[in-house]
Amino acid sequence: MPNETVLLTGLPTLLARRVADRLLASTDSRIVAVVRDKFLDEATAFRDELPEGQRERLTLLEGDAAAMDLGLSGLEYLRLAREVDVIHHTAQVTYMGVDEKAAELVNVRGAREALELARAADHLRLLVHYSTAYVSGDRRGVVLESELDEGQKPRNVVEGTKLRAEKLVQRATDVRSVVLRPSTIVGDSRTGEVDRLDGPYLLVLLLLTSPAEVALPFPTFPDAKMHLVPVDWVAAAAVAIANDPRAVGQTFHLVDPDPPTLRRVAEMLASATGRREPRGFIPANVARAILRAPGLDRIASSPRAFLDQLGTDVRFDARNAQALLSGTGLVVPAIESYVDALVQHVRTRLADGRRVREQAESEDPLS
Q1: CB of 308 within 8 A of CB of 285?
Q2: DSSP assignment, residue 105?
Q3: Are residues 65 and 163 in the same domain?
Q4: Are 367 and 195 in contact, with CB atoms under 8 Å apart?
Q5: Does 115 share its domain with 167?
Q6: Number of domains in the chain
Q7: pLDDT at residue 184 above 80?
Q8: Which H or E element spans position 22?
Q9: pTM above 0.85?
Q10: Is 43 helix (H, G, I), strand (E, B) or coil?
Q11: Nearest to residue 198, comparing CAs of 190, 210, 186?
Q12: pLDDT (tens digit, 9 = 90+) per residue, 65-111?
């Protein structure tokens, strides 16, 4: 939409950066990003690397998406309420090792604060709430985009708090909103870049740190489905959906409609890493012990959540998303097209001796 003012939360996470990239490249929008003090330098570096014409359309405001009035001064908050047209609320905690209090603060209170600003805004067109397909918890079978509270049991505090946050948004009938539910977000399909090496990256780490001649077993049943989507596609789909008037009031699964099996992904990863293809499988509890082996536990986090996802036979119906994205050219890239980029990014991080971010997760709205 032309000449809109967009509030963006979550910078400098990769998802927020890709949403900003897409907004700046495909619209004339002006972006106001609320950034915590500890991340201002990183957010400023991101802005400084933008093309000149885009750089001047991104304003950074020191604040906190999970604080009262977004941590802004009274004047800043009132001005934002007068100017904002769209809110892209990406700020969230998805780190599975986070404690419930911290997850509640960022995920639930953050959603509440976004809703409060939406209600205070003079002419808000849309609140875009970034949820997760895994609000489905331990449900099995087909999950529809129209379904939310179906008696499911969350498998961890992230799923529980994201479920409560989405309920807040769904029940706020006085706010024009859209809910986006991506499945497991992996790195950029072009660069491989990712915020944190967890989830499916545990497979890459296992392969890269194991002897080339050893054929590792699968960490669960090899025919389990892996619901993966690259972060740049999620951002592009999010912006396209937000700019479609038909989207208001709907929920969208941003997922691969034909997800690959663990076997297929492992075969591709083995080829990309120069390792033998996995053979056989081991029980999930044994796999968890392997993934906590010395070395891996220092660069990867919470393998249990990843194994729980693989062990839940679920399919996310995405007819709403497919209908709106039809004709836009935004088709989920096949993992074959970006697996080498993902592996190379992990290789680079390991070679550089860099470890996954270890800031206090209770304070860090990483996505």
Answers
A1: no
A2: I
A3: yes
A4: yes
A5: yes
A6: 2
A7: yes
A8: helix 14-26
A9: yes
A10: helix
A11: 186
A12: 999 999 999 999 999 999 999 999 999 998 877 889 999 999 999 99
